[in-house]
């Protein structure tokens, strides 16, 4: 028995190595190593010339407790949370409608949700900028008909950043919600109705709990990328820094690699915590 | 009977809500198309209809270059991701081995961790290896974040796979390699195609990771990022509009070919 198993292992070594080997090697070199390297940098000393000096130090983690960093982290978490909640509320009715459509129509409608992705996200945000900026369409129109005497300040505000985030990530909420709601067995909804629940109660007690995997998957797919998306606040925002901008600056202009790496580790920690919660409810493959 | 009840036509409220969502998604795209015909060169004010933007586009070598770089990058990274991903998925499905858990875990990193962190990890690693930033580093980065999405898509297909079919092929005398190329891979094709499409989409649109590793190889998103905080010139809108039209055309063509193909092989 033992020798037979050994023989089978030997027989399979070559196909396994040739099929999985290249990917495995790629992932080790270009994913595992870089991540470990960032982790290592986070516990080293900063150097203005090379970004990092190889002397162990926990200075970077201590520096995270500066009020500046704490405020930026807090602002970013709050913004990501607001974005997720608004996306959820805005996407749920639409996802519900999609799930009720005939398959052919639904396929087309889903395609229409995906299609904007093929157009550069920055340009689409700029499209909004042209609508809401001081000399944009809305302000021009309102000034013209005389409702306002000076332009409404919409562009380059915190509200505009939130708006841009919701716009960018809404499809990531619609798709998993739609998948999850479509999977609900209609006979369960009928049973609830037959047993005397009204529409609202059926929704709260049956549909909503059964779509929980979609809700969580959607929240994760909105929350996590919105923590790191530095370009949205660059385009839409005032000068308020978010976590993404801060990390980018620490690496690119301030040359404080350890602090940037420590913040990245913090970002990974938030992500893992969110995933830990999620893994109790849904499957990881549904996130892709 | 019940079925019919479930599929009653959508109410007015539902339809208007869906239209509102689509309006939200498409309003900026409509703006892009309108502004591509702007007579003035900057994006701030619309000053009448003109095709000047399209004419300057074809003289703007820098912009066109960045566009071709982006397309090349997407195609090269997708081909590499699909080859690596297809083999790895089949191998991981077929065999048990020691480091499967590790590989699976690594695959989830680009899917779940913010792109920014991946970009930074590449920045410091390439600096350590003293690699010249440019097309090669872009390809490495793009393959790394596309590969997991390709694998997940193919895996979704392979999960509902009857191993008896492969066994039958081998019983009927096909070699392992022949079974792979004639039976396994054709059966996985829908998963491979959807994985490749996602990979192209991700690669074409990527700004965050590319912005750390591009060196001198300008891609379209990076070029736009440089402009978007000041003002975007009309030729960028023109290029975007052409990309929108091209996307729709490619999709319509793919649909047409698929319908045609199904008709020919339907019976």
Descriptive overview:
The complex is a heterodimer of chains A (288) and B (267). Helix content of chain A is 74%, strand content 3%. Chain A is mainly alpha-helical and 288 residues long. Chain A has one domain (63-287): Orthogonal Bundle (MetI-like fold). Chain A has a two-stranded antiparallel ribbon. In chain A, helix 1 (2-41) packs across helix 13 (257-279) and helix 8 (186-194) runs antiparallel to helix 9 (199-210). The longest helix of chain A is centred in the first third of the chain and has 40 residues, at 2-41. Chain A is globular and about 70 Å long. The mean pLDDT of chain A is 83. Chain B is an all-alpha fold and 267 residues long. Chain B contains 12 helices and no strands. In chain B, helix 4 packs across helix 7 (135-158) and helix 4 (61-94) runs antiparallel to helix 9. Chain B has a domain at 57-234: Orthogonal Bundle (MetI-like fold), CATH 1.10.3720. Chains A and B meet through helix 1, helix 3, helix 4, helix 5 and helix 7 of A and helix 2, helix 4, helix 5, helix 6 and helix 7 of B.
Question: Which features does this protein show?
Answer:
heterodimer, A: 288 residues, mainly alpha, MetI-like fold, two-stranded antiparallel ribbon, 2 strands, 3% strand, B: 267 residues, globular
Short description:
Chain A has 288 residues and is mostly helical. In chain A, 74% of the residues lie in helices and 3% in strands. The chains are: A mainly alpha (288), B mainly alpha (267).
- CATH homologous superfamily (4th level) name of chain A: MetI-like
Percent of residues in helices of chain B comes to: over 70%
Count of DSSP E strands of chain A? 2
Number of distinct beta strands of chain B: 0
- Strand fraction of chain A equals under 5%
């Amino acid at each position: 028995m033992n020798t037979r198993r050994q023989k089978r292992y030997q027989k399979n070594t070559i196909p396994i190595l040739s099929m999985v080997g290249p990917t495995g090697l790629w992932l080790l070199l270009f994913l595992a190593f870089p991540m470990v390297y960032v982790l290592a940098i986070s516990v080293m000393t900063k150097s203005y010339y090379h970004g990092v000096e190889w002397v162990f130090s926990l200075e970077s983690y201590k520096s995270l407790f500066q009020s500046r960093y704490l405020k930026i982290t807090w602002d970013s978490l709050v913004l990501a949370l607001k974005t997720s909640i608004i996306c959820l509320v805005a996407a749920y009715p639409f996802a519900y409608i999609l799930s009720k459509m005939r398959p052919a129509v639904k396929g087309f409608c889903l395609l229409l949700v995906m299609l904007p992705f093929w157009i550069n996200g920055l340009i689409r945000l700029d499209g909004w900028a042209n609508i809401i900026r001081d000399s944009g369409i809305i302000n021009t129109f309102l000034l013209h008909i005389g409702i306002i005497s000076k332009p409404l300040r919409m562009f380059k505000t915190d509200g505009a950043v939130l708006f841009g985030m919701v716009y960018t990530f809404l499809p990531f909420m619609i798709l998993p919600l739609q998948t999850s709601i479509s999977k609900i067995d209609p006979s369960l909804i009928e049973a609830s109705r037959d047993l005397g629940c009204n529409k609202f109660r059926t929704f709260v007690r049956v549909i909503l709990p059964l779509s929980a995997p979609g809700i969580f998957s959607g929240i994760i797919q909105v929350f996590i990328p919105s923590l790191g998306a530095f370009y949205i606040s660059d385009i839409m925002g005032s000068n308020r820094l978010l976590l993404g901008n801060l990390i980018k600056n620490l690496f690119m202009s301030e040359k404080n690699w350890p602090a940037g790496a420590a913040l990245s580790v913090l970002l990974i920690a938030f992500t893992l915590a969110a995933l830990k919660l999620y893994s109790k409810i849904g499957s990881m493959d549904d996130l892709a | 009977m019940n079925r019919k009840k479930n599929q009653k036509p959508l109410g007015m409220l539902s339809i208007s809500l869906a239209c509102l969502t689509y309006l939200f998604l498409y309003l900026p795209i409509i703006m892009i198309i309108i502004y591509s015909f702007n007579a003035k060169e900057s994006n701030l004010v619309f000053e009448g209809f003109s095709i000047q933007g399209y004419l300057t586009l074809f003289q703007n070598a820098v912009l066109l270059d960045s566009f071709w770089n982006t397309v090349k990058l997407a195609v090269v990274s997708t081909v590499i991701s699909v080859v690596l991903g297809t083999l790895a998925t089949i191998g991981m499905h077929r065999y048990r081995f020691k480091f499967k858990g590790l590989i699976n875990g690594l695959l989830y990193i680009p899917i779940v961790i913010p792109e920014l962190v991946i970009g930074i990890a590449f920045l410091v690693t390439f600096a350590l290896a003293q690699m010249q930033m440019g097309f090669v580093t872009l390809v490495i980065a793009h393959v790394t974040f596309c590969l997991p999405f390709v694998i997940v898509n193919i895996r979704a297909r392979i999960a509902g796979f009857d191993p008896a079919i492969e066994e039958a092929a081998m019983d009927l005398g096909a070699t392992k390699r022949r079974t792979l190329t004639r039976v396994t891979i054709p059966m996985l094709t829908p998963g491979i195609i959807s994985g490749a499409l996602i990979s192209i989409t991700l690669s074409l649109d990527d700004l965050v990771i590319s912005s750390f590793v591009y060196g001198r190889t300008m891609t379209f998103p990076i070029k736009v990022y440089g402009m978007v905080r000041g003002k975007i010139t009309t030729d960028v809108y023109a290029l975007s509009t052409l990309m929108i039209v091209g996307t729709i055309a490619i999709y319509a063509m793919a649909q047409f070919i698929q319908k045609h193909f199904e008709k020919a092989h339907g019976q």
